[in-house]
Design goal:
67% helix, mainly alpha, elongated, 0% strand, 166 residues, 7 helices
């Protein structure tokens, strides 16, 4: 029988964080401790924004190249968790959050967890399919108005109806 230590850790974490506040507060002072907590929260928000956009670009590049984006998706999830850990007040959570922002640590975590994670994808058609961009309808200013639709109903010769039938 396998016993999980995660619930015990989640119960002990607030006590460890309080102990961390006491130790840091004794060393640098109460005001500096509050400043460090606020700075780490601000850093978490900034890093989430900066790193998050980078991960989204890498996921898009993987999908455009018809490769499996599961590793990049996992990296994105770990960055979100890291940012949340930085935003939560506490020094232990900050240390874990900062470690998760490092790509080698995320790679190590991905290599340990990828056997337990199932990513449902459809590669039978040769990879991810991009959007079709070859069917563009270019309208002039007077080609469409809401009043015309309300007066006469749908136009059966509309190019929008022809696209569906193609």
């Amino acid at each position: 029988m396998r016993i999980s230590l995660l619930p015990l850790f989640l119960l002990a974490l607030p006590l460890l964080e309080i102990a961390g506040f006491v130790v840091v507060g004794r060393e640098v002072g109460a005001l500096a401790t509050v400043g460090l907590v606020l700075a780490s929260s601000f850093a978490g928000v900034l890093l989430l924004r900066h790193q998050g956009f980078g991960v989204m670009a890498r996921i898009r590049a993987e999908m455009d190249a018809a490769r499996d984006p599961s590793q990049q998706l996992a990296h994105g999830a770990m960055i979100v968790v890291a940012a949340i850990l930085l935003i939560i007040p506490g020094f232990i959570s900050d240390i874990v959050g900062l470690l998760l922002f490092l790509p080698p640590v995320r790679d190590l975590a991905w290599n340990r967890l990828k056997g337990r994670i199932v990513v449902a994808t459809n590669f039978s058609t040769g990879g991810f399919r991009g959007r079709q961009r070859d069917k563009v309808i270019d309208l002039e200013d007077g080609d469409y108005s809401r009043e015309d639709d309300l007066k006469r109903g749908p136009d059966h010769n509309s190019p929008w109806r022809r696209l569906k039938d193609d």
